[in-house]
């Protein structure tokens, strides 16, 4: 039997596979809505397509986490990559509503399959090499940094590439004519994203070795997945420390949904026009990803400064909540000073969330074992998404001004309060 990878190698491979998964997301996001409307879809139809994606992720989140715990991490990650290749290709080339809806369904399934297995693989590998007391925080931080860096790089490339093709000596027109209109400048980022997803599959299959598992049969999968989902969910809900991690994830989801919903309109107000507001929002989104990368990279340092993961989560969430509170305050007036303060506050939100994530997950992985690890991560992801959807609905119904921003700020500060005074030793994982 081969020896498990050493922690340094596992960290590098985990960061690489994380970067390759999220780079396609950054590539297709900036142009996707514009491409769909150029294909003739109304905004209502576009919203419906994204609802297909969201519902698919929510429905499949827990079963796919359980599937990873039963059949292994690598197979599930490779399946997620293959689904994304198909989905991104269909989104880039599709011209009918039904084809695009099928693409969103595939993308939602790929997102659900990918939620947790890579991180679970990293923790399993490190603990197999160095024991259950192995240091995890650095690798988790590198994964968060890789995710944010990929989104930042992808967003810039995905936003600039159609512009270059559309204005480059008729290159976009020749491209559309050569492909009978299927490939236009706005569809190129999606096709590039599909190619990166294919590279992701190759990397997963070649660089993520797993210890041998019992051969999975249809009967073992059908019986094992529901039992694993039930065990993981029960542990996450009943264990006090894990319950705090889940509630913190919900607070982060509420904050992110609030910021993503309200920032585009605020940017348009500050610049005076929707078009210039869209440019400002794109720049802010890229800056937010970079701040998340910086916060995640510094998460181990924050833990050392504060004396542990629990205090680091408290400090990081307090910084993020303060930034969101400042965003709400600056929404009361316009001008250069308000814009500068709002930009700084925006950065604080993402910097704090980036630093909080690895420390929270360090606590989570020390409390669960490999049999339900991916399931616990799926429960965490579901908490974030569900709270985000609810917060978005609440913030969207409130009158314009500072009040809607308080939805996310209050949630984040409440999440920080969960960790106040919590410095007890983390109990060992219970099989």
UniProtKB/TrEMBL annotation:
Xref: InterPro entries: MFS, MFS_DHA3_Transporter, MFS_trans_sf, Sugar_transporter_CS
Stated membrane topology is: Multi-pass membrane protein
> Membrane among the record's keywords?
yes
Question: In the UniProt record, does the keyword Calcium occur?
Answer: no
Write out the transmembrane intervals: 12-29, 41-60, 80-106, 146-166, 186-208, 279-302, 314-333, 339-356, 377-397, 403-421
Task: Classify the source by domain of life.
Answer: Bacteria
Keyword terms of this UniProt record: Membrane, Transmembrane, Transmembrane helix
Main subcellular location of this protein, as a coarse class: membrane
Q: Where in the cell is it found?
A: Membrane
Q: What is this protein called?
A: MFS transporter
**Species the sequence originates in:** Streptomyces lavendulocolor
